């Protein structure tokens, strides 16, 4: 993983030189993981920034709090790790100033994700110095996944498959939503652990599946991003599982969704779910090199229109080390699909307060079409008990 990260940084430096970019400051966790190979786990914003400064011609610099520097130094290939402390003269502002130099003519940042504390510091410290957006440069690199990256994502797909099988096995009349969530976490963590060792860089990679389980059941199935609660399942309940904030491995994140029904399915719920599956499959069938992103969305939208449902905001999104990358499968996005692009592709219909149809998979664009990264039956799914 670290050698891959080093190669990416070298490629980024080549592109920076070609574009006349001297230095760039990366603050987004996914970007730092992509280039430097390390990340944290807390998921809490303390106002204590970690930064990666990439110079077009010199070795990159990691700037991190002193208390986390030991782990950071072990996880990254970057040799220069500068530390800072919360009190005293060794502030992160001074460390950043040393990395940027006395009189930068411009500073390249991740405009849409830079923490406010860092943006405010740059505005105050370097008045009049243009802040330009490095995100499109790195984003263009991240669009196309290497065979190594696709291999990691396919391991994430196996983990997601174990999670979905556990979700399916947990369903029965009288069982409760949070019990399904616990089963998902256990199965996913055990599967992830099977891919890891306790040596070298991997000893810092936690197998634990975390974040709240997104799921809806019964009349709440039409809601989006509801969390698991204590509701008990009843016969004919639709039950929807979304793993988009949980199915990940070594920072690579997938989209993966399935809808189940307890005991049996009503005719109305069957119609909605079949429409969602048909729309998703139409989108995936349209995906191949040379096709525009918006044309994939149009294929799904045609199914929704023909079956009498409203079209959604988008049919899919690019996936990788961030939850949302570019491009998106939606009207107006004219990005040309290329081999190595990876997407979460969804079918989704909501009938407010009644039911919903949902399905989602992750795929990679190949030379001739697509290859699935996630695997589970794409049909009407009933509980087994």
Radius of gyration, rounded? 23 Å
Given this structure, which CATH class of the largest domain is correct? Answer: Alpha Beta
Order of helices and strands: HEHEEHEHEHEHHHEEEEEHHEEEEEE
What is the approximate shape?
globular
Helix/strand structural class: alpha+beta
Overall tally of structural domains = 2
What features would you describe in this structure?
The structure is a single chain. The chain is an alpha+beta fold. The protein folds into 2 domains: 2-142, 3-Layer(aba) Sandwich (Creatine Amidinohydrolase, Chain A, domain 1); 144-382, Creatinase/methionine aminopeptidase superfamily (Creatine Amidinohydrolase, Alpha-Beta Complex). The protein has 10 helices and 17 strands. The strands form 4 sheets. A 6-stranded mixed β-sheet has the order 4-3-2-1-5-6, with helices on both faces. The protein has a 5-stranded antiparallel β-sheet with strand order 13-12-14-15-16. Strand 5 (107-109), helix 5 and strand 6 form a beta-alpha-beta unit. It is globular. The two termini are 42 Å apart.
Fold topology:
Blueprint: H1 2-19, E1 23-26, H2 29-36, E2 51-55, E3 61-65, H3 69-75, E4 80-84, H4 92-100, E5 107-109, H5 116-125, E6 131-133, H6 135-143, H7 147-169, H8 177-193, E7 214-217, E8 238-242, E9 248-249, E10 252-253, E11 257-261, H9 267-286, H10 293-306, E12 316-318, E13 325-329, E14 342-351, E15 355-365, E16 370-372, E17 381-382
Parallel strand pairs: 1-5, 3-4, 5-6, 11-17
Antiparallel strand pairs: 1-2, 2-3, 7-8, 8-11, 9-10, 12-13, 12-14, 14-15, 15-16
Helix pairs in contact: 1-2, 7-8, 9-10
């Amino acid at each position: 993983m670290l050698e891959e990260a080093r190669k990416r940084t070298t490629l980024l430096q080549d592109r920076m030189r070609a574009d006349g970019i001297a230095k760039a400051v990366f603050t987004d966790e996914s970007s730092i993981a992509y280039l430097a190979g390390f990340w944290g786990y807390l998921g809490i914003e303390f106002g204590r920034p970690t930064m990666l400064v990439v110079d077009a011609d010199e070795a990159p610099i990691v700037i991190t709090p002193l208390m986390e520097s030991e782990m950071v130094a072990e996880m990254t290939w970057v040799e220069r790790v500068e530390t800072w402390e919360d009190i005293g003269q060794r502030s992160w502002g001074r460390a950043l100033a040393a990395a940027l130099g006395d009189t930068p003519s411009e500073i390249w940042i991740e405009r849409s994700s830079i923490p406010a504390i860092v943006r405010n510091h740059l505005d105050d410290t370097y008045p009049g110095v243009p802040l330009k957006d490095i995100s499109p440069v790195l984003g263009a690199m991240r669009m196309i996944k290497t065979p190594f990256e696709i291999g990691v994502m396919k391991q994430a797909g196996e983990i997601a498959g174990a999670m979905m099988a556990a979700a399916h096995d947990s369903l029965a009349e009288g069982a409760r939503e949070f019990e399904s969530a616990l089963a998902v976490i256990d199965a996913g963590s055990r599967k992830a652990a099977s891919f890891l060792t306790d040596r070298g860089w991997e000893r810092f990679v936690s197998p634990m599946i975390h974040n709240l389980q997104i799921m809806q059941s019964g009349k709440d199935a039409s809601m989006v991003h509801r969390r698991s609660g204590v509701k008990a399942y009843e016969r004919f309940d639709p039950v929807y599982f979304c793993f988009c904030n949980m199915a990940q491995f070594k920072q690579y994140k997938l989209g993966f969704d399935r809808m189940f029904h307890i005991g049996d399915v009503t005719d109305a719920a069957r119609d909605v779910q079949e429409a969602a599956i048909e729309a998703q499959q139409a989108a995936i069938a349209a995906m191949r090199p040379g096709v525009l992103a918006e044309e994939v969305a149009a294929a799904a939208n045609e199914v929704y229109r023909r079956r009498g449902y409203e079209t959604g905001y988008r049919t899919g999104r690019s996936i990788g080390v961030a939850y949302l990358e570019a491009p998106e499968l939606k009207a107006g996005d004219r990005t040309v699909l290329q081999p190595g692009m990876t997407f979460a592709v969804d079918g989704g219909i909501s009938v407010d307060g009644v039911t919903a149809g949902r399905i989602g998979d992750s795929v990679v664009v190949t030379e001739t079409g697509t290859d699935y990264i996630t695997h589970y039956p794409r049909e009407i799914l009933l509980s087994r008990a």
